[in-house]
Every structure is written in C-alpha cells, then in structure tokens.
Amino acid sequence: MSGFETWNAGGETITIRKDLRAPMRDGITLAVDVYHGAEDKPRPALVALSPYGKELQAQSLVLPPQRRPSPLWDGCLEAGDIARIVKEDYTHVIADLRGSGASEGTMVGNYNAGGSPLGQDVYDLVEWVAEQPWCDGNVGMVGVSYFASMQVLGAAERPPHLKAIFCSGGHYDFYETSYHGGILWFMPRAAREGRGGDSGIAVGDIRSRMQEELSPEELAERVEARLADPDVARWPNLAHVLTYPKNRELWYDILLNELDGEYYEEGNPITHAPKIDIPVYVQINWGRGWTVDGSIELFKALKGPKKLDLLPYPPMQERPFHEVHDDMFRWYDHWLKGIDTGVMDEPAVSVFVEGTREEVTSDRWPLDDVEYRPLYLRPRRKLSVKPEPLGTEYAAPDGFYQAPLTVTDKVEVLSWSTEPFHETTEMIGTGAAHLFVEIDTEDTNLILRLWDTAPDGSRQLVTTGYLKASHRELDERTTEGNPYHPHTRAVPVEPGKVEEYVVRLYPFANAFRPGHRLEVELSCNEPLVDAHNSLLPPEAMHLPSGRATSHKVYRDADHASRLVLPFTTRRAERK
C-alpha cells in the first residue's frame, strides 16, 4: 500500500510518496518512492533505478556523507542527494529493480532481469513517471555506478520522455567490470553479496542464469572446468560458491563466464550506446582504470550531444553520493528546464591532469597533439628513451619467482624507473607495455602499476594494466599505444617459451614535474595492502595467481621490452 508523508531537511519540506507501483509491459510492477517539494505542482523528474533497495537510498536524508575508512561508508548509497535534488525543484524518483527490494518479478543472471532487457524496464518506468501529476513530462536520470549503467541501457531504448542523462562513475563494459585483462575482480562480489562496506543487492527473487539455461550435465562440466583453474581452486570462497551457489547466484554466474561473449555483450551499455540520440554527460574519476576506459569508450560510441569529464584522483570518495551535483544541475537545468546555463558552450572534453592539477579541454578524445613514444626497460631497473644495444647473453633478463598465497604472504614486485625529469613532462591518453616474458607454467597474471614518484619518495598512482597471460591475443582494434584484447578464448602458454605480451595501460593524464620520476612495477599478484588500495572500496582486489611461477623478463637488443606512452607535444588550452 502506498503512503504519503512529509520530511523537513534543513528547513526544506519534502513530500514523500512511498511504495507506489509502476507497471511494466509484462504485467509485473516495480516499487517506487517519490520525493518532491511541498508545493503540489508538476516538476522535471530525475529517476534512479537499481537493485540496492530504495529504502537504503533514503539514508541520504539522515546520514552525512562518509569518506573511507569510515565504517559508515556504504558503496551502495548511490542514488543521489535527495534533499538537494528537491531543493533544486526536481522530483526524485527511486525505484527497485525487478527481482529486488519490494518490486515484483525475477532477476535472472547478472545483467538480465527475468529474461527482459533492463533497458525495457527503464523505458516503462520513465514513461510511467512522465504521466504522473508530480512530473511535468521532462525526465532525466540520476545516480552513480550501477545507477549510471541503468541510465545508458534505458536511453538506448529511446523512451520519448527521457530528455537527457547524466552518468557519473559508471561501469559500462560488463566483461571489464568483472574481469580486468582476463583477471577476476572481487568487487562485483561485494556489490552483489554485501561484503566489506557494501550493503549489496536487496535480494528479492534472484536466480542463476546459468542454472536456468544449462542442463545439469552442462552445468557440471562448466563447474569442473572452472575448478581446474588453480587460481580458482585455491581460493576457498570461489570453490565454495561453485559448489554451493544458493544465495550467490549472480557471483556464481560471473565465475562460470570467464570469457567475453553473449553473457556480457547482449546487455553491454557500450554496445547499445550508438542507439542513444539524447544528450549524455559522462564523468569519471582517475584511479580505477577500467571504469575510466569504459567511460571513454561509452563517450566515443555516443551519437548525440555529449560531454566527458575526467576528474581528479582518487575515485569512489563519499557515500551517500552527493558530489558533482553542481555539474548535474547545470546539465539538467539546460535540457529539462530550458535554462541557458552555458554548459553546451564549453568544450566537449575536460581532463584533469594529475601532477600540475591543471584542466585541459578539447573537442574530442583522444586529444590532438599526442605522440606515442617508447621508454625501454634497461638493466639495473632503469627506464630509458634509448633501447638496449646488447644481446641476451650480456643483458640477462630480470626475473622473480612468485609462490602462491597459500604458502606465502609476500608479493614479489619488479620495478624500473626513469631518471628524474628535468622539465614538466605531460602524458594524456592510453598506453601499452610490450613485455617479453618467459614463464615456466601454462598461465600467470601480468599486473602493471605506473607511479609518479616525488623526490621525497612519496608517490601517486598514474595508471594500471592487467593481463592474464592466456588472454594475450590482440584484435583488429589495436593501434600503437592502444591495444585491445578480445578475451574470447584462453590460449595456454608454452612453458619455457619467450612470448611478447602487450598489456593495455588504462587511460590517464599526468604531468611529471621536475625532480619526479616515472616508476613502473610488475607483479603477478597485487600487494595485499598499500596506499592506493586503501583509497578503493573494500575487496577491490584481483584474484591472485594460484600457481608457483618463475618469470623472466627479457629486455635486450632482441627483446625490446618497453612502455609506449602518450606524450603531449604542446601546451593545450587550459583553464
């Protein structure tokens, strides 16, 4: 039964309509809460839709924003600042995704709701909202992360009353949301199960898509194949989920789909983005390269009016989400209220450059006047603009042996560094690491992290790169400094063979100031604790290698191991 109440927040009276029911085309209804000002009039509406529970989002009325490591930080509080949205004279609509919270229906699989594409539910919800007396027919959407992905999927269905969207902090390449370079990422477990600082999905009726679609025999074969991977078999939680999937159905399905394909692509927002013709504002913070990569790929695929902001490090700061609301209201005041805010008079792309903390603007991405140049791995852990002139017999490879974490807590790391820069050196774009590596097993992880190291030894992360060695194949999109891996099959490594691995370095923007050095680290596991990981949400780690593996990194005249990086060639327009 729906209810009606009022709430006072900072002197503002908020009218709350609880538990309304929005009908979907297949007959099920979604549970909806509505927040607007005291005056009973139509307003533009901003819609938020996720499986995290509309009641959780109401915490933004009583919980001041928390920064990590506050124990009250909750990564699922992402629907926006209700009081601020109401104060700006918008109606805030927060709904539960089907199969979650108080909504009807079944959620099947990871990105497929009850067999219905998620975008169809957004379409039906938007059109229902537009017909209500508290909406003036102009609808946008709000919320970060999962909420932002829902915005893209909904806009691709082209509901007539959805006039613009504002996507901040989203995940758009669904395979890359789960596997980085083919390496499993644990964060989806936290967001779905509710672990380590995330409330997780408000579970209603959720089922495994793999269990729905595969026969018991096929399912048993898939599980057996995954447990044959030492990385998976030697991680107790994963072995447990594969054996006992009940109540972890979505995480179970991710584990059974370690390759890219139909499971991820049919609902991939980037795949659907070319169908969107309404204005789209895309924002993302530096620090989690896969989300930056996906945001840029989304921006490039969009066909209508669009903007892209690449914002300062670090990501995922405060919850409840309240940041960048100033940008959002400039956008929606323009497109939903018809107010000339000047937002479309500005360059389409804005890039915050770490190091100098300047803003570079452009009409496109990638930026003009970027030149890809190599930095070669050299003996004595050096990076140089000049390649190694000596052969393998004189420039012997670097190496490390990594024992699995079943027997050690030590993560071995190789590093190479430039000499201190004499002048400010700016890089903006993607990058690549060409590494000639010999391993003595069939697979390993190659994890790269680039740092800006100051004269006093302090440092900030610049970018990362991940590649499971068996996923080393490249596809036709690959260009110099911008490699792409299809991740559609795994090709075991021949032990003892020197292979060239081209690791994608996620997009970044950094200016190395005089006296600073660029440092690159290579490992097959991530350090268990460090300054960067402490800035990320809990459990934002990657599945370690379960194999005992020796790695030899060749960097001689016949094996030009190198970084290929996007050096800017002129001072671009700055604010």
Compact summary:
The chain is an alpha+beta fold and 575 residues long. The chain is 20% helix and 31% strand. It folds into two domains: 3-346, Rossmann fold, CATH 3.40.50; 370-568, Galactose-binding domain-like (Jelly Rolls).
Feature tags:
575 residues, alpha+beta, Rossmann fold, Jelly Rolls, 30 strands
Roughly what fraction of the amino acids lie in strands?
25-35%
Please give the alpha-carbon distance between the first and last residues: 52 Å
**Main sheet summary:** 7 strands, antiparallel
Low-confidence stretches: none
Topology:
Layout: E1 3-9, E2 12-23, E3 29-37, E4 43-50, H1 54-57, E5 66-67, H2 82-87, E6 91-96, E7 107-108, E8 112-113, E9 116-117, H3 118-130, E10 135-141, H4 146-155, E11 165-168, H5 174-178, E12 179-180, E13 183-184, H6 187-193, E14 206-207, H7 209-213, H8 216-227, H9 230-233, H10 236-243, H11 249-255, H12 262-265, H13 269-272, E15 280-285, H14 289-301, E16 306-311, E17 318-319, H15 325-336, E18 349-353, E19 358-362, E20 370-378, E21 382-384, E22 398-402, E23 414-417, E24 425-439, E25 445-453, E26 459-468, E27 498-512, E28 517-523, E29 549-554, E30 562-568
Parallel strand pairs: 4-6, 4-10, 7-14, 11-15, 15-16, 16-18
Antiparallel strand pairs: 1-2, 2-3, 3-6, 5-17, 8-9, 12-13, 18-19, 20-21, 20-30, 22-29, 23-28, 24-27, 24-29, 24-30, 25-26, 25-28
Helix pairs in contact: 3-4
